[in-house]
């Protein structure tokens, strides 16, 4: 019976992913909603393997949505939108997560810390942050699994323990976490960008990225200043590589092909960059796997296992999307319209959006849930005259900060598990001072973007 249920879950989640991608291609909300239902049923069937937090969030989302529907406070159209969003964001994570199938096929990914620790110690922090962000833009949460797991194995192999081990974990993995947090600011494959551009079609990644890059430079600069001393100590214990690991050029070429296909899809079809990534990443990955394995059944089984293995993260994404639509449906459209129409009002809305997300994440509400609710409130504000660009920039910046401060977020929990350090230590002791320093700088940057730049234009 267990084997039958496991097989059914794998088939259901894989079918839901394909259906959601098809819905995106034909622009059908009803098909996407059907995919959302399949995902939710699959998550419920797989409830025993889902972590407690994800299971609780899924239960709350279903109860709240059902309650609103029964009370007549949520229309059939909004329910369909909630289910469609649940299908889309689950498929977003599942499709990008397919890139993890390549990890075991490339030695350079297994020895990534030896690669990144090469060169002068003064460049180690920015190197880790930038490379982690670049890898995470393709691997998503797989990047944290890759860097955390490979570092844990490296430390065991070299017998690094005690204070030295803690220094490695804090320096290397906190840099990786902060690099991962750059993804919403600069990467077209970010779920934050996907959510905002889905709610506000007039926005695009190309409009957001210049401001995101500016915020990313602030984050990298502050982290660089704080982590130099510890990286100097870590660099004395590294192992120098005599040459690049086997397969390095192939991996770079494969990633470039993925981005080239994304560009072609955007140009020829008009898809958003995030939607193009959802098609290009699994497509190129599956073709490469088929070329390597020469067995369609083996590739299909591995792909299905990969999707099923992400049930915990996908259920969080689906529940957050459904809960976001449900809660935003009971918030009056006029709640913030008094601030619309002025630059100062726009900045206040943007600043509040930036601050609320890390604050709520710090008390256990994961960033994607908060962003889903906030994004649902944007269309009425934009209709009243609020400039969507500064607000969207503020939300992706707040999302970035929240990823570092959320003790229940997937990235912090992964670092905590592999590093054998309390997630409260990771979120608050290791990242607290960093966030306290960068928040005023980011608010100043937001002020310049929301007030000075529009005025000068």
Could you characterize the architecture of this molecule?
There is one protein chain. The chain is mostly helical. It has two domains: 1-106 and 293-330, no CATH class; 108-246 and 333-457, no CATH class. It has 22 helices and no strands. Helix 4 packs antiparallel against helix 16 and helix 7 crosses helix 9. The chain crosses the membrane at residues 57-74, 126-151, 172-196, 208-226, 247-267, 273-291, 347-371, 391-415, 427-448. Keywords: Membrane, Transmembrane, Transmembrane helix.
Could you name the key traits of this structure?
transmembrane; mainly alpha; 22 helices; 0% strand
Quick summary of this structure?
The chain contains 22 helices and no strands. It is mainly α and 457 residues long.
User: Structural class, from secondary structure content?
Assistant: mainly alpha
Poorly predicted runs: none
Shape call: globular
| Biggest sheet character | none
The tally of helices reads 22
Taking all residues together, what is the mean pLDDT? Answer: 82
The level of helicity is over 70%
β-sheet strand percentage = under 5%
What is the CA–CA distance across the termini? 66 Å
Number of domains: 2
Number of strands: 0
Radius of gyration, whole Å:
22 Å
- What pattern of helices and strands is seen along the backbone? HHHHHHHHHHHHHHHHHHHHHH
Organism: Marinobacter salinexigens
Keywords: Membrane, Transmembrane, Transmembrane helix
Protein name: C4-dicarboxylate ABC transporter
């Amino acid at each position: 019976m267990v084997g039958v249920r496991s097989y059914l879950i794998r088939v259901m989640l894989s079918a839901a992913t394909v259906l959601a991608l098809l819905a995106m291609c034909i622009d059908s909300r009803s098909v996407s909603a059907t995919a959302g239902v399949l995902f939710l049923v699959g998550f419920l069937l797989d409830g025993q393997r889902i972590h407690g937090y994800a299971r609780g969030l899924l239960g709350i989302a279903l109860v709240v949505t059902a309650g609103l529907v029964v009370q007549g406070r949520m229309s059939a159209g909004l329910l369909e939108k909630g289910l469609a969003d649940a299908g889309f964001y689950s498929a977003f994570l599942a499709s990008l997560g397919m890139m993890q199938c390549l990890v075991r096929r490339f030695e350079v990914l297994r020895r990534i810390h030896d690669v990144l620790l090469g060169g002068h110690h003064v460049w180690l922090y920015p190197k880790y942050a930038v490379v982690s962000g670049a890898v995470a833009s393709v691997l998503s949460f797989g990047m944290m699994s890759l860097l955390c797991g490979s570092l844990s194995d490296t430390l065991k192999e070299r017998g690094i323990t005690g204070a030295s081990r803690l220094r490695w974990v804090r320096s290397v993995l906190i840099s990786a976490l902060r690099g991962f947090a750059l993804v919403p600011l600069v990467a077209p494959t970010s779920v934050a960008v996907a959510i905002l551009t889905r709610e506000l079609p007039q926005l695009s990644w190309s409009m957001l990225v210049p401001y995101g890059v500016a915020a990313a430079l602030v984050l990298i600069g502050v982290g660089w200043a704080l982590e130099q001393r510890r990286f100097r100590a870590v660099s004395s214990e590294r192992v120098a590589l005599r040459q690049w690991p086997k397969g390095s050029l192939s991996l770079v070429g494969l990633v470039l092909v993925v981005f080239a296909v994304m560009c072609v899809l955007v140009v020829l079809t008009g898809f958003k960059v995030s939607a193009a990534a959802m098609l290009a990443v699994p497509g190129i990955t599956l073709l490469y796997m088929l070329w390597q394995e020469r067995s369609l059944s083996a590739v299909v089984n591995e792909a299905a296992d990969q999707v099923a293995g992400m049930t915990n993260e996908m259920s969080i994404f689906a529940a957050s999307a459904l809960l976001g639509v449900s809660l935003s449906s009971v918030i009056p459209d006029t709640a913030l319209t008094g601030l619309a129409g002025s630059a100062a009002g726009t900045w206040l809305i943007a600043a509040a959006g930036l601050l609320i997300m890390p604050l709520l994440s710090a008390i256990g509400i994961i960033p994607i849930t908060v962003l889903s609710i906030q994004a649902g409130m944007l269309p009425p504000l934009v209709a009243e005259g609020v400039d969507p660009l500064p607000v969207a920039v503020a939300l992706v910046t707040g999302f970035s900060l929240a990823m570092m401060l959320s003790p229940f977020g997937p990235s912090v929990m992964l670092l905590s598990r592999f590093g054998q350090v309390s997630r409260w230590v990771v979120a608050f002791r290791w990242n607290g001072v960093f966030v306290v320093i960068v928040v005023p700088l980011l608010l100043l940057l937001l002020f310049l973007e929301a007030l000075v730049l529009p005025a000068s234009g």
